[in-house]
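Table S2 (text version). Query chain:
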Amino acid sequence: MQPIHILALIAIYFGVLVLISYLTGKEDSNAAFFKAEGKSPWYIVAFGMVGASLSGVTFISVPGWVGDAQFSYMQVVMGYFVGYIIIAYVLLPIYYSLNVTSIYQYLEQRFGMVSYRTGAFFFFISRVLGASFRLFLVATVLQYFVFESWGVPFFVTVILSILLIWIYTAKGGIKTIVWTDTLQTLFMLGSVIIAVYYISNELNWHWADLLKAEELSAYTKTFYFDSILDKNYFWKSFISGMFITICMTGLDQDMMQKNLTCKSLNDARKNVLSYGMVFIPVNLAFLFLGALLFIYAEQQGIAIPVLDGKTKTDLLFPEIALNAGLPVGLSVIFILGLIAAAYSSADSALTSLTTSFCVDFLAIEKREALKQKSLRKKVHVLISVILILVIIAFKYVLDSNVIDNLLKVASYTYGPLLGLFSFGIFTKFKIKDKWVWLVALLSVAITYGLGSLPASFFGGYQFNYELLIVNGALTFLGLILLRRKHN
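Corresponding structure-token output:
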């Protein structure tokens, strides 16, 4: 597929998003931008959140991860579902009862202003890095397969990507995103199903042949019960997945902001549970696609792409879809799925970061009504610039699979949020609020130190994503030390 054809598809797709933005962004108020006026149908939110939860990382990086980790990622995904149940029955009732715009306002009411700002700060760092990981992956694909041959620098690719997102989120905010996410989820899920069909046909396999193929068995080991020392050990992965979902969805303004646009707590609960159930078969489909990609690449002698001297399994899917001589339909489907995956996560991140900065740090609701909209628009531009700078920096520091990096970083940045919310929900203690920021920073530093030590230091035990739990526990213990003797 020629680069000009790829650009044409992007232009058409972007035109559709701008049209949706125009139709949903006529009410250019902060109430619509931040909470969609609380009128979103739960089933629309639920379907759109499937795409937002998956993102470009799942679309490209999960299939590429199969070569190293086989189907072990499903152990984490199973834990995700338990996490969604906890969100539905523990966290959502709190947010709806307090009628918050930012979920970190709970921390202000429970502990005080420093705790509130500390929680918002760690969300801000988490979401900037998370959104940048996702956009970096998509920008890398566009650079490698489109702009590199035209001599366009990587930083220009990044700027264009963010600019497109900024244009269609500038007015409607979360109200627009609820609807664009629905379209993006449809394209993403359709893409993976059709891609599996195309590649299975190229291998001359029907569905029954696929499930029985000996070649497939080399990639489908799912459960690891051999040794707790193994970083892929089942219970480590399962419990880590549960806490990853609690933190990266339930304690994340980006994901919860969409839930808070539902008409009621009951609708929001149905939303979370329904897309949590869908998450399991969808991720399984991505893993089957990854296995097919590696099998096809081996049979056809297709090398895993190398970029900047580094082997990039993340680029295997686009390499086969665009350059392996397969029917053009697969290329079209891949590009549409990629764009959908990119925008479904990045647009909501840009909006939620704008919301958090305006509400949590600038107290926009307390400012003059005439100045609120202008301030929000300036912050929207500022966040866009920050994302551009971080994504460009990633080009020079990342050297492994993007989803692995994403989950590792989440272990450090979401830990203090886990500790703060857990302490607030499960204890009745008051704390010395002014020192909360120090406890949070120390817990991150200690966790990072533990994660950096060699496995031999722990008798061969390898830390993986359970560092998130360790981080949260350290924050929790630190808050116990800060509790007041008299409430």
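Notes on Table S2: The first helix runs from residue 3 to 24. The chain has 20 helices and two strands.
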